[in-house]
Request: fold
Amino acid sequence: MQTIFLARHGQTEYNAKGWLQGHNDSPLTEMGQQQAKELGLKIQGLKFDKIYSSDLGRALATAYLAINEGDVEGIINLDKRLRELDFGQLSGKPVDSIMVEGMHYTENKDFVYPDGESFNQLIQRLDGFWTELNQQSHKGFLVVAHSGVVRASLGILGINRYQIRQERLPNGFLAKIIIENGSVKDYQEL
Reply:
């Protein structure tokens, strides 16, 4: 049995402005730092065999603040496969840029953003990460990533709640997932 805590980074300057980030990065806002610390309080005192984060600064900063606030021991392992969906030329533009028919990844998972990737390509990238994690003998994990990554990861694990546009995934999101024999036994949003 494995227990996975899956989190989305705290609010960034781009989030506050309503801009797409993708592989671009922007620092956490004061609210984002507070959200990261609140994540830490939710995981306070827990023991993780492995801690993973996207290599993008906003996820790493969230992971760092959370484990410090939660007094959690462990080394943060950076993994590029946990990077956000690459919006390519739309990165740094208003979120509304993708809110047209067929361009939003929850409606058209095969749409490739110009000079970027599709949601299905993101799923393929993440599938290797989750397969490797599932094969580990370790039992407890913290994974800090991004909205698209959390959406895709939940889908890979068979939890499809966030696969539609209307379900917004908030900054500072945290879910606890228990996996037994390769299947989700329990799912809770904390």
The CA atoms of residues 14 and 179 lie 34 Å apart. Helices lie at 13-17, 30-42, 57-69, 119-135, 147-156. The chain has one domain: 2-189. The chain has a mean pLDDT of 92.
